Amino acid sequence: MLKGKVALVTGSTSGIGLGIAHAFAREGATVVLNGLGKPEEIEATRAQLAADTGASISFIGADLSRADAVAELIAKVETEHGRLDILVNNAGVQHVSPIEDFPPEKWDLIIALNLSAAFHAIRLAVPGMKARGWGRIINIASAHALVASPFKSAYVASKHGVLGLTKTVALELAEYGITANAICPGYVMTPLVQKQIPDTAKARGISEEAVIRDVLLASQATKRFVEVDELGALAVFLCSDGAKSLTGTALPVDGGWTAH
Ligand code: NAD
Q1: In a domain, 141, yes or no
Q2: Residue 19 CB less than 6 A away from ligand 1
């Protein structure tokens, strides 16, 4: 379904981004991976994905917390592949801490990566999408784009911001064949979630088991973690013709969390 399309998935060396990259590659898209990690592990991931799917998979490294690196990434994709049709802004980090102890440098990093990088990538990808009359912008926001949790001030602020950005660009681009949507996952067991369990336990004064049961899955009515394949399937649908009028939305994939 995506043959001939070039997709960039930021932060796709692990977790949700890698799952979405898999889903696009299975549909025949040319996929550009990005993210941090050890070069040999990233190359193994790239080669495995190419072997599993037969799709053309490349990797372009960039620290997306820097605006100049985002610009270089978009320019390289367009130079190396001649186009950028599908942009998934997925790279993100978390930090868990009470507001009075929240390190300002963590705030700056989270806003730069989770929010500003999406702005820069979108502003630079849009001219090519407009020229070709087709584009898909998918921002991986979070249930935390819709509701808050304590001790996650920067993350919740960044994800609410991403949703505002999504709605704004959807309106601006609606007549150019370009859609922009925010996928809002509940908890998915990825390295990002694994890392926050000890800090959440500390911030709340409870055990790590209690964090999983009473914090992470407490509001998720399904009582299970969302799986990356579910997010990949939705991202593929958003790129289909059937989704061409679906724009400016927040799509919760959260096991009922935000239905409360
Ligand atoms: P993850 O830690 O598995 O993946 C994060 C990716 O971002 C990795 O590829 C990492 O290398 C990359 N990255 C980190 N810093 C970077 C930087 N400075 N420049 C470029 N890439 C960088 O986490 P994940 O859970 O897959 O998260 C992916 C996205 O999904 C994030 O935006 C996150 O906020 C969002 N999300 C996750 C969950 C969840 O429960 N896991 C829920 C809702 C939303």
Answers
A1: yes
A2: no
Residue minimizing CA distance to atom 41 of ligand 1: 188
As a 3-state breakdown, the chain gives helix, strand, coil percent values, each rounded to 5, of: 55, 15, 30
DSSP label at residue 66: S
Report yes or no on 212 lying in a domain: no
* Residue 16: predicted pLDDT: 98
pLDDT at 134: 98
Distance 10 CA to ligand 1 centre (A): 9
* Residues linked to residue 7 through DSSP beta bridges, in sequence order: 31, 86
Residue of 24, 155, 187, 257 marked active site: 155
DSSP string, 190-215: SHHHHHHHHHHHHHHT--HHHIIIII
Q: Indicate the number of domains in the chain.
A: 1
pLDDT digits (tens, 9 = 90+) for 222-252: 999 999 999 999 999 999 999 999 999 999 9
250 strand-pairing partners: 182
DSSP helix/strand/coil, 188: strand
Are 6 and 245 in contact by the 8 Å Cβ rule? The answer is no
Q: What is the DSSP letter of 148?
A: -
Nearest atom, ligand 1, residue 143 CA: 43
Q: Is 176 a catalytic residue?
A: no
Query: Would you state the structure tokens that stand for residue 147, as one six-digit string?
Result: 């509701």
Q: In whole angstroms, what is the distance from residue 34 CA to residue 12 CA?
A: 5
Q: Does 221 map to a domain?
A: no
Would residue 193 count as lying in a domain? no
Q: What is the CATH number of the domain that holds 153?
A: 3.40.50.720
**Angle in degrees, CA 180, 19, 130, rounded to 5:** 25
* Cα–Cα distance, 136 to 170 (Å, whole number): 10
- Domain carrying residue 98: 6-186+227-259
